[in-house]
Amino acid sequence: MTEVETISNIDLPILDKSGKQVDTLQIDPAILGGELRLSLLKQAYVTTHGNQRQGSARTKSRGMVQGSTRKIYKQKGTGNARAGASRTIIRKGGGVAFAKTRTREDFRSKMTKKMRRLANRNALLAKLVDGEVRCITDLGMETPRTRDMITLLGAIGIDRTCLLALDGGNRNAALSARNVENLDTIRVAQLNAFELLNHRYLVIDRASLESFLDGSCFPTVEKDIKEVA
User: Fold this and answer.
1) Which of 156, 152, 150 has its CA nearest to residue 12?
2) Which of 38, 56, 112, 161 has a 20 to 30 Å separation from 142 between CA atoms?
3) CA separation for the pair 101, 110 (Å, rounded)
4) Sheet (strand 201-205) strand order
């Protein structure tokens, strides 16, 4: 696929819990960026990944290691190779040549709010284009049960890593999914490019998907970002 490719309207099948198609949802790609912006998606992924680094790795140089600076033995006459202090980098317990001293802030980078929001929507567009979004009529469950979640995923053809997007009130589904292998949950309002690209499939119910598309799931409705290049 090229760097920029215009996409026509997308008809997303709506499935029931048995995997049968019961309806179709038409999605206008313009609200998701209109075209795939691969460089923006990579920037968003690298930025998020870097910002998650703890930055706490520490090593000591020879100047930071505790110990004497005295020469171990005289330069000549011992038959041994020349040696200096015990804190040298070639001796056990000595320092290292290039100590790790960088902090968490050294790995952090930023994206503008419009770029970040567009990347999140464009990642969803990429999933839709590749046919990796499974939209269910309703993900509600009467009781939390792992077996029911596994049955649902099998019925809709999930065989790889999966991201389950839920609204805040769907607690039973969240509890049912927490012990399923290769399945992670996320709130609809927190969908982002990093999580979408890190999983093969996205499973979401129709109401949650529509709330993400029109912005009603966010505290404040997002402004139109179609004009962002």
Assistant:
1) 156
2) 161
3) 22
4) 21-27, 10-15, 133-136, 201-205, 162-166, 183-187
Contact 117, 31 (CB under 8 A): no
Residues 6+ apart with CB under 8 A from 57: 100, 102
Q: pLDDT at residue 6 above 70? A: no
E-only strand ranges, the chain: 10-15, 21-27, 133-136, 162-166, 183-187, 201-205
Label residue 218 by pLDDT band (50, 70, 90): confident
Token digits of residue 139 = 């993900």
Q: Return mean pLDDT, the chain.
A: 90
The pair of structure tokens assigned to 9 is 């309207």
pTM: 0.80
CA-nearest of 169, 158, 159 to 15 is 158
Domains, the chain, with CATH or none? 10-54+108-214 (3.40.1370.10), 58-101 (no CATH)
**Distance between CA atoms of residues 75 and 88, nearest Å:** 16
The pLDDT of residue 7 is 80
